[in-house]
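Person: At home tonight, work slowly through the protein below, taking as long as you need, and write a paragraph about the fold.
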Amino acid sequence: MESTSRMPGERPVKNIMNFWKIVKSSFQYRWNIFFCIITALGVGVLWGTNLSAVFPFMQITFKGQTMQEWAADCVKESELQIQALETRRAVLLTNAPTPAETSAPDETSAPAETPTPAETPTPAETPTPAETPTPAETPTPAETPTPAETSTPDETSAPAETPTPAETPTPAETPTPAETPTPAETSTPAETPTPAETPTPESAPTLPEMSSAEEVQELPEDVQALTDIALIDHKLQIERATHGGYVKLKEIIDAWLPTTPFSTIVLLLAALLAMTVLKTAFLIANSVLVSRIANLTILNIRNRLFDKCLALEFARYTQDGSAVLMSRITNDVGGIGGGLADVYGKMIREPLKMFVCMGIAIWINWQLFVVTILILPLIAWAIQKLARKIRQTSRQIMKEVAKLFETLQETFFGIKIVKCFTLEEHVRERFFSQGRTIYGKALKVSFLDALAKGLVECSGILLVSIALLVGAWLVLTGNTTLFGFPMSERPLSIEWLVMFYVALLGAADPARKLSDIFTSIQNAIAVADRVYELIDTPVKVADPENPVSLDGNSMDLEFRNVDFDYTPDRPVLRGVNLTIPHGKTVAIVGANGCGKSTLLNLIPRLADPTSGEVLLGGVSLRDMTQKDLHSRLGLVSQDAILFDDTIYENIRFGRFDATKEEVIAAAKLANAHEFIENTLPQGYETPIGPLGNLLSGGQRQRIALARVILRDPKILLLDEATSQIDLESERSIQESLSIFHQNRTVVIVTHRLGILALADEIVVMENGRIIDQGTHEELMDRCGFYRNLYQDQPAGV
């Protein structure tokens, strides 16, 4: 069964972190990422710029205006807005309370004294409209009493009287029209502005538009007046900035754009085509860069996985099966590519396009944009739920695909048994059943993916509908508030509403494309979990930090109190003590499952003892590097493993620096040269197929022996080396070994006791323990178990 790193009930954040590790591993290609972002930014900016061409096109075609006329109208309208706001501000200032009225609440207020002519400000002292006079600096006519009417502090305040003509400033003292609003522009307290003097909705907002009427009425009268003035000042600041922008825009338009509507449209369409071509160039460059980043990262991850598999202990292959590891290196890592391509492609490019369009919408009316996106948290919550379901199902699909790999591997490897035992129907039903399971889960992912896309699309339509509904109400009614909340500084026009709508549609298209990658990203997150489960697996057989060298040490091999378990409930070796002096040949015999091969596997550290130690030259194998250890070993296993290459290369795998003469000499010593030259069509250059399947069992075994002879190891390990070949091949191999085993340590594990003639000592094992050891004659005399093994051998062996 395949293991998984996620415990029941564990939050999926771990999966996201594993995918983030893969993304981080791609940061080494920083220049590719940099240019990827630059090209994506180019695509996004040009996308929004192209959409912005809708506004001038509407102005020209719907109103017949040139862009110069439109810019001039914008400047003029802005100037009227500023003039209306300044007029309104002057009206409010004339009614503003004096400091004496606002600073002494406990005293009975007395009318303000009328300034004498000497005290009356001269024109040079009178503030201009650009300078905002405070209530204390500018007395209003309503507040100016005559000197005779001025009350002492003890007198009760009387109503203020209108100043006499003698007290009114002379024309020489009165501010000029440029400095002070004319009587036609400023209403006196006793006079109400005529309709002609009252600002229209197009020229100046009314008081309720400047602040919420309900909120203002709850304030004291003096605070209300000051609040209104502050709001007017704020609006003036915004409008003056807007006016400055329109002026600069008009200068650019006057300098660069044609003066007729049709020629302007021609130029506009030519610019639109040029920007589209440039955007396409950016898009092509971005796609190439994204593919490069994704494939380089896949290459790196696949190499890391393969390297980790090489470092895993031998038991991991027997427990999980090679098909599971193959599935992770091929199928799973392939799934990362799509996710990475989306991360560096659409996940960067489409949000940039969306942000540019959203920026245009915010610039047009940010309050309307905020109202539009109020439902986004609910949509995000629903999408997050779907994301979790897709990740879980994708992980299940990958497990089923790994099982499918196992079925394929077992069927093809054992096809001879499948055919001879008429197992076709069994393996067919097994394969079909796994395929149906994968189909069902893939269908579920497709449904969830379609549901997510539909949710995103419906959400986009809902957002646009809300924007159109609110915007249409503001345009049709001319209001600038919604439920008492300010929505704009001036009434929204139909042209700007259409532009706002186009900007939202421009943001909706990238959002739809982002929903297309939803399943790909979730699948990549699930893949990352499986990939890092293997990468993060601790290596049980690892090199020490401070290794000990074997140079100069004896090559005596010792097992000291060795126990070994694959699992706690499966003891394999118990209390093994064995010493093999260098240069001796020792054979290990026993019934199947007694632990012979496991004991042999401890020598090359295919596994480490559960307890106890294996020593070589007095040094624990754990204290030396595996490379140092393996350079002194040679192995011929029961299944002679050859590779899909030529005879020559398979022998040369024993030592890559060997010459052709040395390769041929090793083949002769292994009794392989004759059949290579006389039987094979291309001699040493003959390809032998995957796992050497174009050769017979005896031929493969002799090639494997030639490979280990070329290696010339100090310790030779033979694991059932002759158990699956015919007697003639076995005799040939024994003849070769009788010469080669001299002056080196040889450990033989065998069922075929005919090879025991090479052994200096025989070790007998039963149920994971050594029950006896000695020469063949000694064991025949005293060990009944060994005697039974020997006598049970077929005749001729």
Summary: The CA atoms of residues 120 and 169 lie 7 Å apart.
